[in-house]
Amino acid sequence: MHAIQIRRTGGPDVLEYANVPEPEPGPGQVRIKLAAIGVNFIDIYYRIGLYPATLPLIPGEEGAGVVEKLGPGVVSLAVGDRVAYTGVGASYSELVVAQAERLVKLPASISFVQGAAAMLQGMTAHYLSTATYPLKPDDVALVHAGAGGVGLLLTQMAKIRGATVISTVSTEQKAELSRKAGADHVIIYTKQNFLDEVTRITGNRGVSVVYDSVGRDTFEHSLNCLRPRGYLVLYGQSSGKVPPVDPQILNSGGSLFLTRPTLRDYIAGTDSLRMRAGEVFGWIESGRLSLRTEHNYPLSQAFVAQSELEGRRTTGKIVLIPGE
């Protein structure tokens, strides 16, 4: 089969389109013929060596397709079932093997591209807004990277829960997308100081929570945007690692909270996985949640897709299509 391999860490040029052996499902596993593969920042972190991995590596954590072969003992799925997943490695490929219990069946009205786009980013936005800091109607949330894949979904979910949303984006075009997603206030951080703008918008009260996927470049100002007992939810580091933090700054800022969550812990059990995926798919089916999936690339062009994501030149979700 064809797959993307990484033999050494580095830039997008280390992503090789190669022929590799087809994987075989073991006990409790199934083999999936992939129709769409999600591209995420975690894939870049592995490529550049920020997250250690044994090489050679097939990157990718997310996809959707059709069950092609069952391993011993699998009774919950059948050949031909349409499924989606996240947290399954080696996904930049035509075929992938996954534990049956980590798969979610796709509703008939959800396409493969939507399935691949909704799993990691959709469930990330879900746990951030409903569990890490459960938003309420009187909350004000600051969402960084408001026109990104998670940012657009998180904004919509925050509005479903009745919160006020302030977002940050880099361009006027992205600002318009953020507004369409429901953001009440949009800050173009390349033209405006987002701390000053948040202070002005909130009348110097600050926000209840900051959802920060940027990391190093935004961390200090994000803390300063919080009202007393506010939450800084750091769930990514697209600009780099945050330097070591003296916990005393949380005290002096007003008994602040800082957390660094990851999706894995919020979908550790099969029930929690299927609950979160089910709610996300339900909102998509009902029209309450809209996905942007216009950035589709052939699997062989994974280096282009990652370059675009890394350069922040995209909005919404990037998806790879095998066989093109």
Report what the structure shows.
By secondary structure, the protein is of the alpha/beta class. The chain has two domains: 172 residues, Quinone Oxidoreductase, Chain A, domain 1 (Alpha-Beta Complex), CATH 3.90.180.10; 125 residues, Rossmann fold, CATH 3.40.50.720. It has ten helices and 15 strands. Strands 3, 4, 5, 6, 7, 14 and 15 form a seven-stranded mixed β-sheet that branches. A six-stranded parallel β-sheet has the order 10-9-8-11-12-13, with helices on both faces. Strand 8, helix 3 and strand 9 form a beta-alpha-beta unit. Helix 2 crosses helix 3 and helix 2 packs across helix 9. The longest helix has 21 residues. The protein starts with a strand and ends with a strand.
Oligomer: single chain
Strand elements, count: 15
Main sheet summary: 7 strands, mixed
Reported CATH architecture of the largest domain = Alpha-Beta Complex
Give the termini separation: 13 Å
Proportion in β-strands: 25-35%
Catalogue the unreliable spans: none
* Percentage of residues assigned to helices: 25-40%
Q: Name the CATH superfamily assignment of the largest domain.
A: Medium-chain alcohol dehydrogenases, catalytic domain
Lay out the secondary structure.
Blueprint: E1 2-6, E2 15-19, E3 29-39, H1 41-48, E4 62-70, E5 82-86, E6 95-99, E7 104-105, H2 112-132, E8 140-143, H3 149-160, E9 164-169, H4 172-180, E10 185-188, H5 194-201, E11 207-212, H6 219-224, E12 226-234, H7 248-252, E13 257-259, H8 263-266, H9 270-286, E14 295-298, H10 302-310, E15 318-321
Parallel strand pairs: 8-9, 8-11, 9-10, 11-12, 12-13, 14-15
Antiparallel strand pairs: 1-2, 3-4, 3-6, 3-15, 4-5, 5-7
Helix pairs in contact: 2-3, 2-9
